[in-house]
Known about the structure:
Layout: E1 2-7, H1 12-26, E2 30-38, H2 46-63, E3 67-74, H3 83-97, E4 101-105, H4 112-124, E5 135-139, E6 160-163, H5 168-176, H6 191-204, E7 210-218
Parallel strand pairs: 1-2, 1-4, 2-3, 4-5
Antiparallel strand pairs: 5-7, 6-7
Helix pairs in contact: 1-5, 2-5, 3-4, 5-6
Amino acid sequence: MNVLVIAPHPDDEVIGCGGTIARLIQENHSVFILILTKGMLPLFTEEIVERARMHSLKAHQFLGIKKTIFLDFPATALSSVEHSEVNIKISEVLKKIKPELMFIPFNTDIHMDHQYAFISALVAARPNNSEYPKKILAYETLSSTNWNAPYLTQGFHPNIFFDISHYLQIKLNAFKIYQDQIKNFPHERSLEALTALATLRGCTIHRPAAESFVLIREVI
């Protein structure tokens, strides 16, 4: 089947579901990555943007991604773009790829780009014609999903788990390619933190490592 992973920024896809991506590719599914935003001046220089995209392509090549699609919406400012414009662009990608399974960021991530990406992805994936993603899963992104306000916003309570015991090291190696994003432990964007989360999610289902998701919709 065709699988689409929507990432607000480069590296979200590996942090959120890199092990699952590796497993799906190993199982002969075609995985596509859609990265929604691009860094803009004055916050990001052209050099930083090019490095980020180069790292994305290298990481995706390492994983075996079928195709990487870059959009040019402004990073950290997705809310400044007309909602309909984002919806249309994602819809165009869905029409071309026709994914059966789609991974999207969680709706109450503290990063606003993630929230807007979630909404636009669901708008684009509406079941209003014969072709639409039959299964949609929301992934967790360390340093974003877990920093919403407890008791005030919906927390991430996973109900779908992918055993990535044989794919965790592949995920970590893919993340290492994003050199500018790796932080030193105990930062959440450290290799140790990614390993710890995978171990915790794995123990939840009595496996050495797992990635967890919230099921948004499934048509059977």
